[in-house]
Specification:
- The chain is of the alpha/beta class.
- It has two domains: about 120 residues, Aspartate Aminotransferase, domain 1; about 300 residues, Type I PLP-dependent aspartate aminotransferase-like (Major domain) (Aspartate Aminotransferase, domain 2, 3-Layer(aba) Sandwich), CATH 3.40.640.
- It is about 35% helix and about 15% strand.
- The chain contains 13 helices and 15 strands.
- It has a seven-stranded mixed β-sheet, sandwiched between helices. It has a four-stranded antiparallel β-sheet with strand order 11-12-15-14, with helices on one face. Strands 1-13 form a two-stranded parallel ribbon.
- The radius of gyration is 21 Å and the shape is globular.
- It binds pyridoxal-5'-phosphate (PLP).
- The site of pyridoxal-5'-phosphate has 14 residues, from helix 3.
């Protein structure tokens, strides 16, 4: 079997993660912050917050909020930041995790909404943001990379423009928050603990060239494997991430990181018990309690914590390079075949490790099924929960077949997939 569906979920957890999770579920289950015995559960969620904060350069781990994943995080951020009468911008390649909550607010008359038109390959000129801004524009929501086209969007540039106009920003980092991409969230992360800058220092120490000359100034994204570095420079208010893709954790885990000012401004969207300030019928104002009602998914938090600790030890340092090579090899192979249309930029360096295709004369679902039944290759077909991205690419409503790669994918797998496509 060849697994080519990493963009949906990472199917195999690292043995270290599996061991820690197994040990944990074999022992007693306690509820964080609900009693003195719950201290251990609280320590686990703190461990996850610390790991996430270190990976994404967030100065205060309490600004890491744990949720069931990117969908919940985006719903919380959109509903917590958008107010009646606001004009909201989002791109034309958003996942339904963003598109549906926004569309719901638009339909009930709460907000005005404009989709920023990306090119058919998913790319976006940052000036499109400036041109779309109106007097009442208050929120910009963007995916970091399209889960259909793979294209990495210039989020730092777009958010820098939004900041000029005092517009709040939400980033859907479901496809990029991983050990593969270096994302620096806080401005103060420059020169602090961000993995992005640790990596660059390591490259310099080895005598290699730093990818941007080493200036590390805010709002930059570079081409090549270096395009995997995104310095948000403090211009992002909320960054949503998921645990079950590139972070190597469990399904149903994830969260968001939030800026200090946004944390004060954002309304809680889910309310309930926190084990704190119980004499009040309002949610606590402090973090993380303001955004974390109910019993937390401690095992999900543990998965994220252990997996990120491995990432931070450099265990998966070379993955971006590996994924770029595989994606480029796959695209080069596809280009030699007739009747195949490749969507996205066709440039591995400007993309996450996925390629969507349409084969002339084949329904996407049938092709995906044939690849699985005849060749044991697991892909994902259809609209990938992102109809807007398919409309942008011109593959709506029939969809496409998406191949996505990860740490377990080999060059041999790529060649087998190409051979299988050639035989179909
Ligand atoms: C771009 C994008 N956003 C959001 C999501 C939703 O993530 P989660 O499964 O954590 O809710 C996905 C997952 O497929 C995604 O690809």
């Amino acid at each position: 079997m060849i697994y080519a569906n990493y963009a949906a979920t990472t199917h195999v957890l690292s043995p270290v993660v599996v061991k820690e999770l197994r040990d944990y579920v074999s022992a007693a289950h306690l509820n964080a912050a609900r009693n003195f015995e719950g201290l251990e559960a609280g320590a686990i969620t703190l461990r996850a917050r610390r790991a996430v904060a270190k990976l994404f350069g967030v100065a205060d781990p309490l600004r890491v909020i744990l949720t069931s994943g990117a969908t919940q995080s985006l719903n919380m951020a959109i509903n917590g930041l958008a107010s009646p009468g606001d004009h909201v911008l989002a791109t034309s390649v958003e996942h339904n995790a963003t598109a549906r909550p926004l569309e719901c607010l638009r339909k009930c008359g709460a907000i005005e909404l404009d989709w920023l038109r990306c090119e058919p390959d998913g790319s976006l000129d940052p000036q499109t943001v400036r041109k779309a801004i109106r007097k009442n524009t208050k929120l910009l929501v963007m995916t970091h990379a399209s889960n259909v086209l793979g294209t990495i969007l210039p989020v730092a540039e777009c958010f820098t423009i939004a900041r000029e106009y005092g517009i709040r920003t939400i980033l859907d980092a479901a496809q990029t928050a991983s050990g593969t991409f270096s994302i620096a969230f806080d401005k103060s992360a420059l020169g602090a603990s961000s993995l992005a800058f640790d990596k660059r220092r390591a490259i310099q120490a080895e005598g290699g060239a730093s990818e941007d000359g080493g200036s590390g100034s805010g709002g930059s994204e570079r081409a090549g494997p270096g395009a995997a570095e995104t310095d948000l420079g403090g211009c992002c208010d909320v960054m949503a991430f998921t645990g079950h893709k590139g972070l190597g954790g469990l399904a149903g885990s994830g969260g968001f990181v939030i800026g200090e000012d946004a944390a004060a401004a954002m309304r809680p969207w889910i309310r309930g018990g926190t084990g704190s300030v119980s004499d009040s019928l309002d949610m606590p104002e402090f973090l993380p309690d303001k955004f974390e009602p109910g019993t937390q998914n401690t095992i999900g938090a543990l998965g994220i914590a252990v997996s990120i600790e491995e990432i931070l030890r450099g265990v998966v340092e070379k993955i971006r390079e590996h994924e770029c090579k595989l994606t480029a090899r796959f695209i080069a192979g596809l280009r030699t075949m007739k009747k195949i249309t490749i969507y996205g930029t066709g440039d591995a360096a400007r993309s996450v490790a996925l390629v969507s295709i349409v084969v002339e004369g084949y329904d996407a679902g049938d092709l995906s099924r044939q690849l699985f039944e005849k060749h044991g290759i697991i892909t994902r077909s259809g609209l990938h929960c992102a109809p807007l991205a398919h409309m942008t690419a011109g593959t709506y409503p029939s969809g496409a077949v998406r191949f996505s790669f990860g740490s377990g994918t080999t060059e041999g797998d790529i060649d087998t997939m190409l051979l299988s496509l050639a035989r179909i």
